[in-house]
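Action item from last week, closing it out:
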Amino acid sequence: QVQLVESGGGLVQGGGSLRLSCAASGRSFSSYVMGWFRQAPGKEREFVAAINWSGTSTYYENSVKGRFTISRDNAKNTVTLQMNTLKPEDTGVYYCAADGRGSWSNWGLPSSYGYWGQGTQVTVSS
């Protein structure tokens, strides 16, 4: 089991940057695929980015490619989402999630992740 706590959200102007962090506690952080999702008001939770166990493979939702970077530090049990050139449509609650299935597949589906943080609010003004 793993517990996840996000931090780093806030209010930023369009074009600005934010760095989200997710601290994990529990067992065997390196055995989890890690993902970031977001949810805007009135919308479903959507995939943002995922990273495999060693950090050697990453995937991004199309609208954030080239602007967001996901990384992890297994020694520190953390996963980070660096967000640059933010847009108002990036606004939402951002969630860190852990997938303990042992498979690098379906990383874009919320149902693949068994553990979730409480979320951190990101608001981008125009």
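Closing note: The mean pLDDT is 95.
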